[in-house]
Design goal:
Layout (H helix, E strand, L loop, with lengths): L5 H9 L6 E5 L14 E5 L16 E5 L3 H8 L6 E6 L5 H13 L1 E9 L14 H10 L13 H10 L3 E6 L6 E5 L12 H4 L4 H4 L6 E2 L1 H12 L10
Parallel strand pairs: 1-2, 1-4, 2-3, 4-5, 6-8
Antiparallel strand pairs: 5-7, 6-7
Bound molecules: S-adenosylmethionine.
Length: 238
């Protein structure tokens, strides 16, 4: 299975739309944002880690909002804004990403796609939501060389499975672990009590692996295309 970069996955999704509108929450150095081609691009981050803002391609617009996602969705996004692809890669905690997701749905085009980064933590320390606890646990385990931090965003996948019934979803197998969600209702949901989400832990990523619906990106793209063509979801049989 060939590796897909986050850029190529996002660009393939953007290319499904004739004049794509793209929103990225959490932009950092712009490694992804600057590389992507879209008619409209909106960047949101409380602190951009770049000073040069490349000129948009002819006929395209780019907007930069140096604010938190809460401020963007609460004060800047307008009722008319609709995005075809929304990439959520901001603060990597379950609570913040859940709020970003709920807000994103309101600004998603009818056949739009949401991509959520880092839903598959690569170690126990990387799965912790509090940076100081990540550092202390890494130090104790002598894992200081691995600086990756996915936080507890993995809990969102369980939440989506239970509470976002109007969306189908899958996790990209051939990259670091991005969740792709598209509007296609699922006949069945897995009921969960609300307090379970606070108790989910890293090991549940292993013991409840099927929840993630991990599959090659090309299969996910085919499912998204089928949904856009109005075909029924095969999700309930995965
Ligand atoms: C992993 S980096 C983003 C990487 C970027 N998407 C890329 O592909 O290169 C996470 C970013 O989220 C930003 N961030 C942290 N808290 C945020 C918030 N509340 N709202 C939006 N962005 C936030 C950080 O400033 C950081 O730049």
């Amino acid at each position: 299975m060939a590796h897909v970069t986050r850029n190529s996955a996002l660009q393939d999704l953007l290319d499904l739309f004739p004049a794509p509108a793209y929103l990225e929450v959490g932009v950092n150095r712009g490694m992804t944002f600057h590389a992507l081609a879209a008619t409209t691009k909106v960047a949101v981050d409380p602190k951009f880690d770049f000073s040069e803002r490349p000129e948009p391609a002819p006929g395209c617009t780019v907007a930069y909002h140096e604010v938190t996602s809460d401020a963007y969705f609460g004060t800047i996004a307008t009722a008319a804004d609709r995005f075809d692809v929304i990439y959520l890669d901001g603060l990597h905690t379950f609570e913040q990403t859940l709020r970003d997701l709920i807000n994103a749905v309101d600004f998603l085009a009818p056949d739009g796609v949401i991509v959520i980064d880092d839903v598959r933590p690569n170690s126990y320390p990387a799965s912790l939501p509090v940076p100081a606890e990540v550092r202390a646990t890494r130090a104790m385990l002598k894992m200081e060389k691995d600086t990756s931090w996915m936080g507890d965003v993995y809990k969102l996948v369980f939440f989506v499975e239970t509470f976002f019934q109007q969306f189908s979803y899958a996790t990209i197998a051939n990259n670091h672990g991005q969740l792709v969600m598209w509007r296609q209702r699922r006949a069945k949901v897995v009921p969960r009590a609300i307090d379970i989400f606070a108790r989910l832990q890293f090991f549940h990523c292993a013991t409840e692996r099927p929840v993630f619906r991990i599959m090659p990106f090309e299969d996910i793209l085919a499912l998204v295309k089928a949904a856009r063509a109005g075909e029924d979801s095969a999700q309930d049989t995965i």
